[in-house]
Amino acid sequence: MDFQLKTLTVARAAAEKSDVLIVLVGSAPLTAKDPLSALIASSRKAGDLPDKAGKLLALYHPDEVVASRVVLAAIGDGKPASVRSGVIAAVNAAKAHAPKRVVLVFAHEADGKAVACAVAAAADASYVYTTTKSKASNGEGGRSIRHLTLGVADTAAVGKAFDEARATVSGVELAKEWGNRPGNYCTPTLLAEAAKELGKLPRVKCEVLGPKEVHKLGMGSFAAVAQGSAEPLRFIVLRYQGGPKDQAPVVLVGKGITFDTGGVSLKPAAEMDEMKFDMCGAASVLGTFRALGEIQPAINVVGLVPSCENMNDGRAIKPGDVVTSMSGQTIEVLNTDAEGRLILCDALTYAKRFEPAAVIDIATLTGACVVALGGVRSGLFTSDDSLAEALQAAGEESQDRCWRLPLDDEYAEGLKSNFADVANVAGRAGGAITAAKFLQRFAGDFVWAHLDIAGTAWKSGAAKGSTGRPVGLLVSYLMERTRNGAAHAASPKKVARKEPGTAARKARSAQ
What we know:
Number of strands: 20
Shape: elongated
Helix content: 25-40%
């Protein structure tokens, strides 16, 4: 969808050519005296347009308005969450008439946050997946809105926020695209090809490693998950170089299981089709790089995507197998359906070579996180308070929220193994936390956070599809680092490494 920012009042918007005019109306009084503003004021006074965000009033051919249809949408206090509610409701109502051109104007003064939220919400509400639909080749069944003009009182004041939001939408929609593709249209090889396309963007480079390179690196845990599939694994390395060479990068690690059967620990058949979404962490990394390539911020970012299928054949890993990770730690695989952590742990070890300022992994990791937080907030795990605060603030800013959960050492007790340095699962209790504790073992050399997006990466039911989350959160976090100067640190913060299993290995070698 093509977005345009334009200086418009309600009166001037009434004269704009469009199929639908959407007016976002806050709770503050309107002072303008033009016919449409007067109509809005009288509608509010009559109670036909309540102040509650998301309430609508549809008008047909109102006097002195060029557009045949007008939708008045309440946005209450005008804060981002209220703007999102109003825009989503209005665009959904407008879609019923299949408009091609839409004008969306703020009736009151809007700041950059409100504008960014309006852009994201309009794109989200109008998005339609078409790749594997036959009618899409004929131009049918897709997104009807081709052009959206966003009207504000002062374009200069919100122009930068608008441009960043538009780029973020490109990233979100790339993440949605690959998240929505079925497993036969999104193999590790095809996902790697999508990453290579991003390498054509300014300042972005892409490298793809295959099974031989992964074996040489000693990524035995990652390789073990992939060995049951006919599809070869891929390890994707993306680099965005927007800052000085000595600037420590932020490393994003995305889980890229392009289809997850559960392996020998087979999942129930019901809703197994949704396991195509198990690569949404990887998709969010690709989407973030798409946005970075358009915004061109002064920051260095590395993206790591371990990608494979978790399938069954005679070579698939079995419960009780012991694998050796790139870090040297051995892992007892008690449940082959806890495979995401097995590929992420090797990627986290690989991340160490970049001497990162921070490492954030993003994964559809546990059903336990869905139980805890539902589909509203992603789970956030980190032992670094400043990183937690920054990610939570970015979530609020982008309306892509997360919630911090604990990482007490006691939660790791269930991961103890009689046959390896660590088991890949603990009991049912606190499953999202014990999964994070497993990953934490491999992130002892750097500032690290884990985002469990199992509840937020996609929707089920009638609205089934990828959400593109948490691209908005990640882009907001990276842009804030750029603005506050944190991105320019040349020396990463060192964290004392506590490597479980080392003492046991030394003891064995001494025997």
